[in-house]
Amino acid sequence: MQMALSQNDASFGDGEWFKFRMSYSGFLKAGNATLSVKETKLNNKDVFHVVGKGWTTGMIKWFFKVKDRYESYFDIETLLPYKFIRNIDEGGYTKDIEIDFDHNENKAYVNDKKNNVKTVYATTPNIQDMVSTYYYLRNSINPSDLKKGDEIRTDMFFDKENYGFKLKYLGEETISTDFGNIECLKFRPYVMAGRVFKEEESLTLWVSKDKNKLPLRIRADLAVGSLRADLEAFKGLKHSFKILVDN
């Protein structure tokens, strides 16, 4: 059953903004990424509009240019997505896709704008998109209920197929960040192996062990090398942010 979101207990809200520093194989500056949240309306419905952008910088840009944009419009209370946009250019590999979700009929209307093809797919109830999944899980995961090895599952529609998304809890870990030492929850999102990722268990995620569940670090083992994203700036947090102070 899809949960209704209490705005007081929500881990995020209008005006939240993150900026990430991307590095390749641990040392080479690779790019930046941002995530922003705004309240707006879509077809007279109150929604959160999340925009995620990623782009390469420095030397990496010379031989592998990336410019990605992801957008999701999802319901403020249920967090169910209504529209998802994926517009990417990764070294010449491009996609320009818009997806509209009909949760009453359990259908996804996919508009492949690059190839001028429109298709309709059946979806499972309470389907999430690639972006809304993260915000849905931020609100639904209760750290006090987690045990090491637990797996959290949800259904996600990605591009043109239903995908059973799985997140494994790896335990707690304190990591050093730009802001100081932070107590974190460590997860293993299972991803699709293939063109980008080396294998299903290629991704590791660290989020702050507080009400915000800030995404502080993401590490990905790629087909060639590894990519790491570290949170370097933020604003608009809904709750206080706890930093450990050395005595």
Please describe what this structure looks like.
With 247 residues, the protein is mostly beta strands. It has one domain (17-235). 6% of the residues lie in helices and 55% in strands. It contains two helices and 14 strands. It has helices spanning 58-63, 132-140, and strands at residues 17-24, 28-42, 45-56, 66-75, 81-90, 93-102, 107-112, 117-122, 151-158, 161-177, 180-190, 203-208, 215-221, 226-235. It has a 14-stranded antiparallel sheet. It is globular.
How would you concisely characterize the structure shown here?
With 247 residues, the chain is mainly beta. Helix content is 6%, strand content 55%.
Topology, element by element:
Blueprint: E1 17-24, E2 28-42, E3 45-56, H1 58-63, E4 66-75, E5 81-90, E6 93-102, E7 107-112, E8 117-122, H2 132-140, E9 151-158, E10 161-177, E11 180-190, E12 203-208, E13 215-221, E14 226-235
Antiparallel strand pairs: 1-2, 1-14, 2-3, 3-4, 4-5, 5-6, 6-7, 7-8, 9-10, 10-11, 11-12, 12-13, 13-14
